[in-house]
């Protein structure tokens, strides 16, 4: 078994049912083209390029007309289901739609469709360390900037202590049934959880933080999309320098 192979493939749930309102425009941001292919395809390839990922459940918006055109490009086994009004609803729908053979106690990855620049070594590190944790784990990056709290007038109300503050990224890795129950509990309590770890924390659990690359960015605004385009071009140039001109221009490769 090569170092990169993790025993037993895991399934990933990819929430891709958002509208991209902060990005603007008519096309949901997960379908915006970068190097000729939608953001979502780059994200799926980054996941499926790792031998430890067995398949992906893509959670689509109800009536999504865009997916059928791209479904063959993902690079591995992909199923789809319909999401809900909030990200947590979509993730829960994806967990519940996974194939029956995915056992209740099996680990499942959850990764934003809007995070196309996942590095293979980060996913490997999450799988290795997260699967040894009794609760699960998330990729995250330590806060390195000074954090200010803004007043209504745009002035600074104060500085937040940044010691031990981390930015949650994705993928996040949890056991299928435990995460489903935690998400259901948060939804039923009317609590808007913004990531899977928050739902688990509400259950009194402490998921492990696994440091990931700062460039595992979430495409939220046009500036983020421009940054991903730059990163992709830089990776392509790097591959050409290494004489890997024919290497698949897959996201998720080494930088
Ligand atoms: N009801 C929702 C809302 C979001 N998402 C997904 O969750 C990920 C992270 O959400 P975000 O970046 O906020 O995407 P949007 O909700 O589309 O963005 P916005 O908040 O600007 O509308 C995205 O891949 C998005 O498609 C989802 O599957 N279902
Ligand atoms: C899950 C997440 O990417 C972790 O940082 C983030 O919470 C998603 O937030 P969004 O507002 O749904 O993009």
From TrEMBL:
Keywords: Isoprene biosynthesis, Nucleotidyltransferase, Transferase. Pathway: Isoprenoid biosynthesis; isopentenyl diphosphate biosynthesis via DXP pathway; isopentenyl diphosphate from 1-deoxy-D-xylulose 5-phosphate: step 2/6. Coiled coil: none annotated. Its EC number is 2.7.7.60. It is an enzyme of class 2 (transferase). InterPro entries: IspD, IspD/TarI, IspD/TarI_cytidylyltransf_bact, ISPD_synthase_CS, Nucleotide-diphossugar_trans. It catalyses: 2-C-methyl-D-erythritol 4-phosphate + CTP + H(+) = 4-CDP-2-C-methyl-D-erythritol + diphosphate. The record marks 22, 29 as: Transition state stabilizer. The record marks 162, 218 as: Positions MEP for the nucleophilic attack. GO terms for molecular function: 2-C-methyl-D-erythritol 4-phosphate cytidylyltransferase activity. Pfam families: IspD. The keyword Metal-binding does not apply. Catalyzes the formation of 4-diphosphocytidyl-2-C-methyl-D-erythritol from CTP and 2-C-methyl-D-erythritol 4-phosphate (MEP). This is 2-C-methyl-D-erythritol 4-phosphate cytidylyltransferase. It comes from Luteimonas salinilitoris.
């Amino acid at each position: 078994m090569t170092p990169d192979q993790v025993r037993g493939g895991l399934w990933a749930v990819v929430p891709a049912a958002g509208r991209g309102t902060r990005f603007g425009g008519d096309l949901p941001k997960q379908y915006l083209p970068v190097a000729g292919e939608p953001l979502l395809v780059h994200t799926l390839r980054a996941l499926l390029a790792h031998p430890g990922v067995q398949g992906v459940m893509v959670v689509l918006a109800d009536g999504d007309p865009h997916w059928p055109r791209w479904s063959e490009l993902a690079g591995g086994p992909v199923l789809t289901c319909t999401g809900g009004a909030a990200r947590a609803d979509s993730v829960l729908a994806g967990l519940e739609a996974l194939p029956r053979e995915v056992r209740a106690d099996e680990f499942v990855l959850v990764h934003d469709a809007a995070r196309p620049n996942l590095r293979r070594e980060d996913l490997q590190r999450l799988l290795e360390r997260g699967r040894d944790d009794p609760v699960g784990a998330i990729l995250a990056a330590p806060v390195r900037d000074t954090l200010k709290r803004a007043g209504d007038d745009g002035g600074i109300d104060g500085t937040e202590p940044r010691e031990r503050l981390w930015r949650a990224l994705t993928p996040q890795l949890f056991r299928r049934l435990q995460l489903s129950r935690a998400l259901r509990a948060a939804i039923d309590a009317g609590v808007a959880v913004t990531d899977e770890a928050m739902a688990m924390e509400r259950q009194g659990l402490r998921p492990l933080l696994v440091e990931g690359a700062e460039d595992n960015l979430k495409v939220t605004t046009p500036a983020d999309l421009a940054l991903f385009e730059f990163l992709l071009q830089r990776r392509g140039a790097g591959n050409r320098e290494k004489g890997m001109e024919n290497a698949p221009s897959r996201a998720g490769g080494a930088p």
